[in-house]
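Quick log. Single chain, no ligands specified.
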Amino acid sequence: MTARQYVRAPKAGLAPCDGDDCLDLEWTPGGARADSGEADPRIRGVRARMGHSALALPHSSVGIAQVFPGESAECVCQGLRTVSGFAGGVPSRVVLDDATGAGRRVCERVRTTGPSPASAAHCGFAFPLCNADVGHERGSVEARARRLRPNPFVPVPRVAGMGAHNGRPPAMRMSLAKEHYARGEPEDQPFVGGGLAMAGLPEGTSGCVRHERPKADKKDRVRPDGRHPHSTNPSPAGREPIAALSATGVAVCEHGHACGPGPTDTCDPASQLALLAVRAGGWVNVRVRLAVPGELRERMGSPEKPDLRAELRLMRDQCVLTGWEATVVAMAAAPSAAGRVDAASVSVAAARIAGGSVVYDEPVDLAEYDRMAGIGEAA
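-> predicted structure:
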């Protein structure tokens, strides 16, 4: 007997024998139940196994679904927010199962994860957790999730991305609304009535994002969820960058706090010059080389050039004073203007380029300087 069979054996003995042993539940308007299912849309021509978040409102047979890559807490919170905006209100109570990433329940102890408590506090709803795969604890939401798969997702949708796909299932599901089997009215009519019992949408937004600090390996890759590697730029290799996990993607960044009156840009190629000046052997394949003008790139040559490291250091130091654009233009023009590439010639040219040209009201006559230098007399 496996561990799963051993755990299920006592519960099987306590299972209700007939319908008389089940409680007759009444779902009041304003509440909701949520569950997750699977869908297989074609995104950019590739069939992908995705998860869809289904929300069921009381007194309505209309189901609304949103598609996300998984069932994490970010996907659950984003799906509830999107569906609440479509329904026109926020449910006061959303019953979830602990198979999603919103949290875990062990006996009477509930532990929430990710942005779930922050999103619930911002929107003003409670989310009790129940056991997974137990339909009598959440009503018909599991059947709703199974019903959504062969309806809005058949035939298989062909979209360019999940953002374009998520705009379709709500409208498509509402178009499937027919006459209710018991009430004798359209299914979307109780849906509207249930929306009136929900609370209003909160002002402003709060991001359904979880922030982690995973450690990057030597190949500048991070695994914020412990499984899937994400590539970054070489700067945070061996460190712990900030990773923002949302419902649809992961953003990894590691930028120091910039202060001072001058404007800065973290995408500036100059941010890699400090490391490149130490590791000049990477000049052939580094991204900074592609940002350098073609004439200057050919003149700087290959890593075997003796003075390449000195020119990279000169470029690094000058970029701090005048910026990237003025520095590369000055270094490209220095051989023809001054006959050499050194700190003096590059700094003067870069300062002139960064400061712009001077426009005088009257033409400047330089003959006086020629006479002072004796040039005019010699002529």
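Residues 19 and 136 are 11 Å apart (CA to CA).
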